[in-house]
Amino acid sequence: MKTIKTKTGIGKWLPRKYDLQKAEGTLQFADDLRFGPELLHASVVRSSVAHGEIIDIDYSEALKMPGVLKVIVGEDFPYHFGLYLKDRTPMAIGRTRYMGEPVALVVAETEEDAKEAVKKVKVTYKELEPVFDPVKAATTNSVLVHPDLHKYDHVDFITPQPNTNIANWFRIRKGDTEAAFKNAAHVFEETITCPQIAHGFIETFCSICKQDPGSGEITIWTSAQSAFTVRDIIAKGINYPLHKIRVIAPPVGGGFGGKAGMTVEALCLAAAMDEDLKGRPVKLFIPREEVLLSSWVRQGFVARIELAVDEDGLMQGIRNTFWFDTGISAEYGANPVRSARYTSMGAYNIPNVWADCYAVYTNKPFGGAYRGFGLPELMSALEVVVDIVAHKLKIDPVEFRKKNLLMKGQTTCTGMPMHDHALDKIIDKVAKKIDVLKEEPPIRKGWKRGKGIALAIKAPAIPADASSSAIVKLNGDGTVEVLAATMDMGQGTYSAFAQIVSEELGIPYDWIKVYYPDTQSHPYDWQTAASRSCWSMGMAVKRAASELREKLLALFAEYWQTPVENISIEYGVVKCHKLGKSERIDERVQNGFKMPDGILKGGPIIGTGSFTPPDLLYPDPDTGQSPKSVTHFTLGAVGVDMEVDPATGRIIINKVCAGYDVGKAITPINIKGQIEGGTVQGLSACLMEGMTYDEHGKLLTPDFTDYKIATIKDAPGEIDAFWEETPEEISPYGNRGVGEHSMIAPAPATNNALFRATGMRIHSYPLSRERVYKALKAKEKGETDFWEWPYALDLAYERAKKEW
Amino acid sequence: MRDFVLERPRSISQALEILKNHGEKAILKSGGTDVIVWLHKSLKEPDYLVDLTAIDQLRGIVMNDDNVEIRALVTLNQVIEDNAMNRYFPALVQACKAHSDPLIRNRATVVGNICAAVPSGDMIAPLMCYDAKVEIVGSRGIRKVPVSDFITGPKKTSLRQEEIVTGIRIAIPFVETSGCYLKAIRREALDIAQAAVCCTLHKGDSREFRIAFCAVSPRPLRAVEAEKLLNSSSVIDDSIIENAARLAADAVNPITDVRASREYRIDMIGELTKRAISICLRGPAEEGGPR
Q1: Are strands A650-661 and A718-724 parallel, antiparallel or unpaired?
Q2: Does the pLDDT of residue A62 top 50, yes or no?
Q3: For a FRET experiment, which of A164, A468, A691, B258 has its CA 20 to 30 Å from that of A422?
Q4: CA nearest A497: which of A589, A227, A505?
């Protein structure tokens, strides 16, 4: 039994760790680190064609430029990298696959020298036909982005289809969908599209790599969410021992999934491992204009959804085809596809499910992890389709959702029973808080007002063995150091870990420090991703802190000659009320206690803990069925009250109400922050975000001049964030993740509200002002639905139905 | 960014001397909100960057008997905070507020916006409505050019190599006046105009409307036909406003790009013109209204 007292344990509202240093500007990010005059700088030569054979790279003029030491090309570093599928080389080798792909790296004494020399590198291409649309790429295979797909290594649970553009194909075959559709009273079919979008983090990519010429040991300082995954991917990519690679991850200035795996590290390493350069650190800083070309973005998405509903309004079957536009690499992007597949029933109890999810290569910058991991795209489609069906069946959208809700014990699309949750209660609260069914007059003259609701659901899409471990150390003054290789990139996990340690040790929050990751000092953690940290690493930290507490109490028990049950730790002080003893934690926890018999016992007190999900089973590849495909789901609902100016298409969000079942709120300040932040990010994706290309594949929105994300003035007038706490069984305190989930439902809820306001359904995101305006013009001509999708819909429908 | 020599002249004559010595190798900088970005992106690669911010003669909004001078170093925030500017030139103040965000407005200058001469420059339309004159000094002396002649095309001006714009001069309207600047953008703040309309109304002996546009033509443009209709109508009712808006939309010739299509821009010109006229008619106190 734990016998502690603390005022700063779980559930308390406390100032967040490192916020002060961030406000003061003293926290050092990767770009702030100094390496002295030894440091070299690399700059990237990028492809000017979307698809082409590289005929020649002439860098003779670049080498003549001042300060230039070396120009490196793809063949010089011919390794394939990838988390799930090794389809990526740091530089193009022989063939370039998107406009902006690195084709050479110039290394020079200064960043300016390197940049100037980049302009002198001449690359000759033989242009090949590119393919940009995922449905066209998947269904015609007229252009193969990766003709060598069959040669690439991949993990077991990824299923690339050689000689196609399909990097991954996931299936769900649950029940008898054909019969369900045949017997259904109502059948609906809809298509919805989302563009690629960018994370928009403030800190751009930055890596510094160095190889010791003697030992061959490599050190990498990098802006990364997951230090150990960077180490793993690089070790596997260059076939190098893990212990010879050290990854140090300084504080990250925003990640949102964009720094979850390996980003530009291998590219930088190509220079640092070069025979002529090694021994000197090499820095690769990616300027804003190159960020979207340097790592993944959220995948484009095309969803075709068919829903079969019986006479009582119960969903009987769903048939989904999802095309994720993964650009030129699916090394990470193969997995959001899996994530969406697990959840292709949404938050609904649908007995018969048939789903095909594809990750499709195109000649565009590559797709991968982004907050929500496949679910914002999927639910932006599915929750609108559900709304359409409810409207057509003349059932109110709240009632239709509630009567079909996936409740405890009913099975998900993978056949796994759903755990307990409070989504029905959350839906009721959201509906009540924004009075979702009540039509109200617009606040602004001439505008139209509407309200909408949408549900959110997501599970961590982790490999079955994704593990965490932590070390908690007690200092000789009673303060505590926590080594947990989670990256706190603003989501606030270090505050959560400190509160967990305070809860377990009875030591005040302010005495607890959590350090940024370094693979040399920290024990292993799989990734900071999947909203898993407070749950998975939380478990490891809790276990480590408990172990430390038990060790400390045992020593005091012997020291005071009293049973351990009589001892407590209260606000950082060790007490035995029975004996009237009260002592501070001091140097004895480092060098031992002098026990009554005169012998010194103890020594440095360290607690360790680790966690691996105990019971996950990979689904059957043909049917997607598994009794425990995911650890748990976090569910929630979002209500939006908005209005639109029909004469300009401008949308203003009056109010958002968002509630999630978080199991247990460890750090309420973070949960509120995550819900508010995710809501605004979700609205931003809904209303304005999208990567746009010209017909040659040139990105027209490379920086914030034309890639627009929401400003504070675009945030809703009010965000009513709340949560319920239905405990999770396997979890440190019953808590579940919520970091990503808040981004899932704001877009479909807004889209549904727009329909209530105007009677128009827009099937293509974003709901930009111009698009809304155009849609409402189409409405005047009698249209009820509006698409804007470059690849002709009818063609897509026809081809999609064929086998490739 | 390529290396360059930073020159910080203390006087206009020193600045002119530097320009004379270095010719095309030198470029001018005041607020730097455009120039620094150009340098970063290697769009300009000067050998000499002539920073004008140490020249006291270029500072300040100066009220004269019948005109006001906005000198070259006057920032958008200084215009926004100036009482006389708010009183006499509300449309210019609104255009300043519609530009970028408060931080950038602390650096960006009115003159710089004109000199960048991009069609989406927010200062251009109000200065067209107020009939502003650009004051230029060079080795051959001073010349004054109307804004409409100063900007000769996208990113092109009639400024010569060895000249500096010292300021902008606008006649003070000694009549009751109202004005507004309405901007179509992709989000609530910090965007380049998809299209914008500036409308001013002077209520002297005769009522005079002036309307100008932003981001819908290669050179600055006044809505001559729409103005004619409004200024010749004794009563301005909804149908006159509708017709004026249609004439305005007919007058523009925008492009399609990543920010907006030609069609949307034309429609927004019509809509915003309608709103702008109504706002001006409602009086001087009106603050912008819906953008």
Answers
A1: parallel
A2: yes
A3: A468
A4: A505
For residues B152-170, average pLDDT? 96
Query: Would an 8 Å CB–CB cutoff place A524 in contact with chain B?
Result: no
- Among candidates B196, B225, B195, which has minimal Cα distance to B210? B225
Taking CB atoms and an 8 Å limit, are A769 and B192 in contact across chains? no
At residue B284 the predicted structure's pLDDT band, cuts being 50, 70 and 90, is low
Mutation for B interface: A648, A686, A704, A780, most B CBs within 10 A: A648
Domains along the sequence of chain A with CATH: 4-27+466-611 (3.30.365.10), 38-128+202-254+260-294 (3.90.1170.50), 297-462+617-801 (3.30.365.10)
CATH of domain B56-171: 3.30.465.10
CB contacts under 8 A, A 678-707 vs B, are 687-688, 692, 700-701, 705-706
β-pair type (A315-327, A300-309): antiparallel
Looking at residue A296, its pLDDT comes to 87
Burial class (CB in 10 A: 0-12, 13-18, 19+), A691: buried
User: Reading across the β-sheet that carries A567-570, which strands appear in turn?
Assistant: A4-5, A567-570, A573-576, A581-584
Judging by beta carbons within 10 Å of its beta carbon (0-12, 13-18, 19+), is residue A510 exposed, middle or buried? middle
Q: What residues of A are in contact with residue B191 (Cβ under 8 Å)?
A: 708
What pairing do the DSSP bridges indicate for beta strands B141-146 and B133-138? Answer: antiparallel
* Res B236 pLDDT > 90: yes
CA distance B142 to B57: 15
Q: What is the pLDDT of residues A324-359, one digit of tens each?
A: 999 999 999 999 999 998 899 999 999 999 999 999
**Chain A residues touching residue B192 (CB < 8 angstroms):** 705
Q: Which residues of A fall within a CB distance of 8 Å from B41? A: 289
Architecture of the B5-54 domain: 2-Layer Sandwich (3.30)
Residue A700 has its nearest CB partner, among B2, B258, B260, at: B258
C-alpha separations of A696 from A16, A47, A363, A661, A700 in Å = 47, 12, 10, 45, 11
Distance in Å, alpha carbon of B53 to nearest chain A alpha carbon:
26
With CB atoms and an 8 Å threshold, state whether B187 touches A647. Answer: no
Q: Do B186 and A769 touch (CB under 8 A)?
A: yes
Q: Please state whether the peptide bond connecting residue A746 to the residue before it is cis, i.e. omega within 30 degrees of 0.
A: no
Cβ distance A705 to B192 less than 8 Å, yes or no, reads yes
pLDDT, tens digit (0-9, with 9 covering 90-100), for B7-61: 999 999 999 999 999 999 999 999 999 999 999 888 999 999 999 999 999 999 9
CA distance, residue A773 to nearest chain B CA (Å): 8
Whether the per-residue pLDDT at A802 is higher than 90: the answer is: no
Say if residue A140's pLDDT is above 50: yes
CB contact under 8 A, B271 and A115: no
Q: Which CATH code fits B176-282?
A: 3.30.390.50
Residue contact A112–B191, C-beta within 8 A:
no
Per-residue pLDDT, A790: 63
Residue in A287, A444, A768 closest to B186 by CB: A768
Where are chain B's structural domains? 5-54, 56-171, 176-282
Q: Residue A518 has what DSSP assignment?
A: B
Banded pLDDT at A804 (limits 50, 70, 90): very low
Which of B41, B190, B261 is nearest residue A770 as measured by Cβ atoms? B261
List CB contacts (< 8 A) between A108 and chain B. none
Question: Residue A799 has what pLDDT?
Answer: 47
Residues of A698-721 as b/e, b for ≥16 C-beta within 10 angstroms? ebebbbeebbbbbeeebbbeebbb
Q: Do A645 and B290 touch (CB under 8 A)?
A: yes
Q: Look at A281-290, A504-513, A688-697, A783-792 and tell me which has the smallest mean pLDDT.
A: A783-792
Residues of B in contact with A648 (CB under 8 A): 184, 268, 271, 290
